[in-house]
Amino acid sequence: MALAALDLTDREHDDFVRDHPHGHLMQTTPWGREKEHTGWTWRTVAVGRKGAGPDGGDEVTGAALILFRRTPVLPLALAYCPRGFVVDWADGESVDALLGEVSRVAKANRGVLLRIDPAVRIDDPDVRPALESRGFTRTDPGEDAAKTLAQPALRMVTDISDLDRLEKELSQGTRQSIRKGEKSGLVYESAGRDGIDAFYELMKVTGARDGFGIRSKDYFTTLVDVLSPTDDIVVSLVKLDHGAAAAKARKAVEDTRAQLEKARAKREKYPSEKADRQVAQLEETIAKKEESIPGFEAAHAQHPDGQYLAGSIFATCGTRGSYLYAASSDEHRNLRPNYLMVWRIMQDAAAKGVTTFDFGGIDASEGLEEFKRQWNPERREYAGEFTKSLRPLAGRLVDLLVRVYKRR
After folding, report:
1. Where is coiled-coil annotated (predicted)?
2. N or C: which end of the chain has fewer CB atoms below 10 A?
């Protein structure tokens, strides 16, 4: 049966994208609605066999979300399929049909260039030949693909399909950082829309500290609003309960004193340098814990409801999870709240059937990259960014469109 263009509802489109092995959040209709607020318009297209699916429904074999960015003066546009197409790249018939339909819709919306960056590994034997044989060329990534491509091709992705195995593979330091947060009065919250204000305040602190600009609060609110109905987004916060921290510190002092008494008794019976070091370490631990208690009590009086130290926005699409944004306070960084936050997000996501946790692109920030590496990620490279000219005679306008695209 010949392939034809299909008219899918938003839900049908999103269900196909979520269930497809090449599906991605950026190919869902909520992502299109979110991008409306930053100047893009969007359309969806799909192809398949009419009436060939279960119960006489249509069999969908390919779909795409197309974003359009108009030039400021001329009636022309860049057509962009972020992380698309959603198709089996070995199925030439479906690729041809989908490209034909995407090109038709793009031209109808004044598209001059069509740009895509499939969520497919670079070592996939089908994707690059399929694109190059159909007139696409690899967009030159320049010296730093993470900066010049819309979506970085190099990713850091952790397999969370077996958290027991992952926990064993984590370094001792990472496991200790998670436990430290749990023992220090940190509280994890899956906050939803109500957490945007606290998250945004942390985002402003992070931007100032690390020297980057941040999006408006309305951007994050819109992102949560369009994805919340599908349960595809999680706003997470970690706060320090100073009262609980003081109580835990007092309990730790009590427990350590008991260990110290035993260590001193053992040293009297079996004197040694090792016994001296053990006693000194326990005494130092007690001194540090006792020193921290007044500070926690004073902070509890100032922040009776706790103090937010870290926040993040995490999104899912089928079995894929993406760590979109993260922020942290300048205070109490020694408690490493981000470690507890990521671990709890992983646990909740895995419970919903998510199998991969994408930390995002490999970037130039040594501290951020080092944090990502603590989670035993795989260095994953996608096929990259490809461009096809839809209107060859508009050659001089192509460069203009690219510049507009880079300023998205």
Report:
1. 246-292
2. N
